[in-house]
Amino acid sequence: MRHLDVDICIIGGGSAGLSVAAGAAQLGARTVLFERRKMGGECLNYGCVPSKALIASARSAEAVRSAPGFGVKADLAGIDFAAAVDRVDRVIATIAPHDSEERFESLGVTVVRSNATFTGPDTVEGDGVTVKARRFVIATGSNPAAPPIDGLDTVPYLTNETIFANRTLPEHLLVVGGGPIGVEMAQAHRRLGARVTVAEADRIVAREDPELTAVIRDRLIAEGIDILEGARVKRFQMSGETITATIDADGERDLTVSHVLVAAGRKPQIDGLGLEAAGVDHTRAGITVDNRLRTSNRRIFAIGDISGGPQFTHVAGYQAGIVIRNALFRLPAKVDYRALPWVTFTDPELARVGLLEAEAREQIGSSVEALTVPFGKIDRAIAEDRTDGQIKLVLGKRGRILGASIVGDHAGELIHLWALAMGQKLGAKAVAGMIAPYPTMGEISKRVAGEYYAKKLFSPWPRRIVRFLGRFG
Ligand SMILES: Cc1cc2nc3c(=O)[nH]c(=O)nc-3n(C[C@H](O)[C@H](O)[C@H](O)COP(=O)(O)OP(=O)(O)OC[C@H]3O[C@@H](n4cnc5c(N)ncnc54)[C@H](O)[C@@H]3O)c2cc1C
Ligand SMILES: NC(=O)c1ccc[n+]([C@@H]2O[C@H](COP(=O)([O-])OP(=O)(O)OC[C@H]3O[C@@H](n4cnc5c(N)ncnc54)[C@H](O)[C@@H]3O)[C@@H](O)[C@H]2O)c1
């Protein structure tokens, strides 16, 4: 048994663990990282990267389909689905060196490629290595949850961990769950030629503003996706080579499909961690942490998907910074998600930061104002034929920004401005006063902020003042 005595030991080499490891090692801390599967974790191998790569192929197909509308003669001669998946692999391979064992070893991290288990409150073991550390970080992520549906375990269903290895275009893909994974994959597969049905228990992308989600729903339906909301998948069974799903959505029906993708939420990855030996509390949502990301064992932190908070790669990176300040600099840094943005990468994209209108009205009350501008009012969007969508700005007293949501082309890029404004506590005035280049999609941000002041500026008082001043030549 090899014994290591270090400053910080990290379990999990995904977005969260790697961010802490890189920071800690570069700050000179003696750092050990355990990873039992692929370096880079879910995001690189089965999540953000492959999904966005597949979405890029789907967007290309759509661009060809819409080319005649721009006066360009083009026919979609066909789609080589396997080639699109090969491209996904190449994209992963291009990014992988950044997350590799070699890179982390070169930064000074001792990487152990094995499962790690706590054997006590300050000791972890794996692959013949025992590590004692001043601080530990659990960053073991999450796995796809399997909903309790009769017969699910009797059919060969896909999850995000297997769908990007599927090289056969599904003839008919049933997506169970209309959250971000469900809608992103539904649209990508539809655009690449599959027939697609989404069965969602609630409504699709339910965490977002319903007015903006409606734009996504309309687009998905227009592209030929069957969307069943308020739907309960009751049973699965094999019928020869195909899968039959019994779905209750305004009455029961049987749907025969070639493939099923389960995208019905996540469960925390705590198996084999030895949390009892470590004295670390957890619930069904994940490991319990305080606002400094400390667990019930004060020398152990938990970050990323395992910590039960928002599940995004950029959150994992942000939390890693909080842990480094607490664990290495002994600063009492706390998480603050008020200016946290996220994006659902459908086309059009749906992006959001801060509160939704309904949340703001519930938390703050009648002083809340919501202003909207449709992309149809933006010249660049008209020129590009991308007028689908709108921005909604949620303001409190004196133009304080409480939240912004955007559905439209490049919404994920456009939300940066609002994340910065909220993070820096800038009001709508700062955005309204910005000189925005013409013609850009981003003008929509200045326009919506300007709406707030336009109402005040074009009210009777300023008009009286202008008339009065006009008398003096
Ligand atoms: C299809 C999909 C698309 C997504 N798209 C986006 C997106 O566009 N943008 C975005 O921000 N987020 C996206 N996400 C979410 C994002 O992938 C996760 O929030 C992020 O990967 C979480 O990182 P993590 O480090 O907490 O966990 P993970 O990436 O899951 O890493 C945890 C690692 O720990 C390892 N591990 C677990 N237990 C042990 C153990 N006992 N010992 C050793 N190693 C262990 C695992 O093998 C794994 O590699 C997407 C997720 C999915 C599934
Ligand atoms: N663009 C992004 O940033 C992005 C993309 C994909 C995933 N993610 C992250 O990964 C997380 C997981 O994504 P997800 O889409 O799996 O989870 P989710 O929890 O966001 O959505 C799951 C959906 O499945 C539905 N559902 C659950 N059980 C069901 C059942 N039996 N039948 C029908 N519907 C059912 C739920 O009502 C919910 O709408 C997200 O919360 C997000 O944080 C982010």
TrEMBL record:
<feature type="binding site">
    <location>
        <position position="200"/>
    </location>
    <ligand>
        <name>NAD(+)</name>
    </ligand>
</feature>
<feature type="binding site">
    <location>
        <begin position="177"/>
        <end position="184"/>
    </location>
    <ligand>
        <name>NAD(+)</name>
    </ligand>
</feature>
<dbReference type="Pfam" id="PF02852">
    <property type="entry name" value="Pyr_redox_dim"/>
</dbReference>
<feature type="binding site">
    <location>
        <position position="52"/>
    </location>
    <ligand>
        <name>FAD</name>
    </ligand>
</feature>
<keyword id="KW-0274">FAD</keyword>
<dbReference type="GO" id="GO:0050660">
    <property type="term" value="F:flavin adenine dinucleotide binding"/>
</dbReference>
<keyword id="KW-0670">Pyruvate</keyword>
<keyword id="KW-1015">Disulfide bond</keyword>
<dbReference type="InterPro" id="IPR036188">
    <property type="entry name" value="FAD/NAD-bd_sf"/>
</dbReference>
<protein>
    <submittedName>
        <fullName>Pyruvate/2-oxoglutarate dehydrogenase complex, dihydrolipoamide dehydrogenase (E3) component</fullName>
    </submittedName>
</protein>
<keyword id="KW-0520">NAD</keyword>
<feature type="binding site">
    <location>
        <position position="305"/>
    </location>
    <ligand>
        <name>NAD(+)</name>
    </ligand>
</feature>
<dbReference type="InterPro" id="IPR004099">
    <property type="entry name" value="Pyr_nucl-diS_OxRdtase_dimer"/>
</dbReference>
<feature type="binding site">
    <location>
        <begin position="140"/>
        <end position="142"/>
    </location>
    <ligand>
        <name>FAD</name>
    </ligand>
</feature>
<feature type="binding site">
    <location>
        <position position="265"/>
    </location>
    <ligand>
        <name>NAD(+)</name>
    </ligand>
</feature>
<dbReference type="InterPro" id="IPR001100">
    <property type="entry name" value="Pyr_nuc-diS_OxRdtase"/>
</dbReference>
<dbReference type="GO" id="GO:0016668">
    <property type="term" value="F:oxidoreductase activity, acting on a sulfur group of donors, NAD(P) as acceptor"/>
</dbReference>
<keyword id="KW-0547">Nucleotide-binding</keyword>
<comment type="similarity">
    <text>Belongs to the class-I pyridine nucleotide-disulfide oxidoreductase family.</text>
</comment>
<dbReference type="InterPro" id="IPR012999">
    <property type="entry name" value="Pyr_OxRdtase_I_AS"/>
</dbReference>
<dbReference type="InterPro" id="IPR023753">
    <property type="entry name" value="FAD/NAD-binding_dom"/>
</dbReference>
<feature type="domain" description="Pyridine nucleotide-disulphide oxidoreductase dimerisation">
    <location>
        <begin position="341"/>
        <end position="445"/>
    </location>
</feature>
<feature type="domain" description="FAD/NAD(P)-binding">
    <location>
        <begin position="7"/>
        <end position="320"/>
    </location>
</feature>
<dbReference type="Pfam" id="PF07992">
    <property type="entry name" value="Pyr_redox_2"/>
</dbReference>
<keyword id="KW-0285">Flavoprotein</keyword>
<dbReference type="InterPro" id="IPR016156">
    <property type="entry name" value="FAD/NAD-linked_Rdtase_dimer_sf"/>
</dbReference>
<keyword id="KW-0521">NADP</keyword>
<feature type="disulfide bond" description="Redox-active">
    <location>
        <begin position="43"/>
        <end position="48"/>
    </location>
</feature>
<keyword id="KW-0560">Oxidoreductase</keyword>
<keyword id="KW-0676">Redox-active center</keyword>
<dbReference type="GO" id="GO:0003955">
    <property type="term" value="F:NAD(P)H dehydrogenase (quinone) activity"/>
</dbReference>
